[in-house]
């Protein structure tokens, strides 16, 4: 996306989520009948979210010519669990989706650690150049962080209201991720690779 405008990338990444939030807030106290079936705001928001994510993912692929494995996994799980929620008119399937995604990411990172493979660095090394030890530490921390997010998601959707979960999903999870990345700033500095100019004799 080097040649695209700066707002395009965040719009594509967060657009479907903002749409989900907007539709839910608009219809959270109402029901809409479609083909003889009554749907609440949560299911309507899910119904809007699925094609929106498919569209933005297709646009990202069209612009960049590639998709990250996490993007593909997220899209597949959204289609499967979101589709089940709409088909069965049951929000629980869609609420489970973040838990499964975070546990999947944690498992992938954990397997990478056991195999001594720097899978995280392979994806992020251009944006965040670090030595091998730095990537090992960050991978371990991120795996544990994803497990914590999965637990948090389970606690919220099983014990609190739909509205609380939607707020948590739309704003809480991104804020937690931002705080995690910011909280590891010292690790980035301590294990940063020397700049190319500095490496010259």
UniProtKB/TrEMBL annotation:
<dbReference type="Pfam" id="PF04279">
    <property type="entry name" value="IspA"/>
</dbReference>
<feature type="transmembrane region" description="Helical">
    <location>
        <begin position="100"/>
        <end position="117"/>
    </location>
</feature>
<keyword id="KW-1003">Cell membrane</keyword>
<feature type="transmembrane region" description="Helical">
    <location>
        <begin position="138"/>
        <end position="158"/>
    </location>
</feature>
<protein>
    <recommendedName>
        <fullName>Inner membrane-spanning protein YciB</fullName>
    </recommendedName>
</protein>
<comment type="function">
    <text>Plays a role in cell envelope biogenesis, maintenance of cell envelope integrity and membrane homeostasis.</text>
</comment>
<feature type="transmembrane region" description="Helical">
    <location>
        <begin position="71"/>
        <end position="88"/>
    </location>
</feature>
<comment type="similarity">
    <text>Belongs to the YciB family.</text>
</comment>
<dbReference type="GO" id="GO:0005886">
    <property type="term" value="C:plasma membrane"/>
</dbReference>
<keyword id="KW-0997">Cell inner membrane</keyword>
<keyword id="KW-0812">Transmembrane</keyword>
<dbReference type="InterPro" id="IPR018202">
    <property type="entry name" value="Ser_caboxypep_ser_AS"/>
</dbReference>
<keyword id="KW-1133">Transmembrane helix</keyword>
<keyword id="KW-0472">Membrane</keyword>
<feature type="transmembrane region" description="Helical">
    <location>
        <begin position="39"/>
        <end position="59"/>
    </location>
</feature>
<dbReference type="GO" id="GO:0004185">
    <property type="term" value="F:serine-type carboxypeptidase activity"/>
</dbReference>
<dbReference type="InterPro" id="IPR006008">
    <property type="entry name" value="YciB"/>
</dbReference>
<feature type="transmembrane region" description="Helical">
    <location>
        <begin position="7"/>
        <end position="27"/>
    </location>
</feature>
<feature type="transmembrane region" description="Helical">
    <location>
        <begin position="164"/>
        <end position="183"/>
    </location>
</feature>
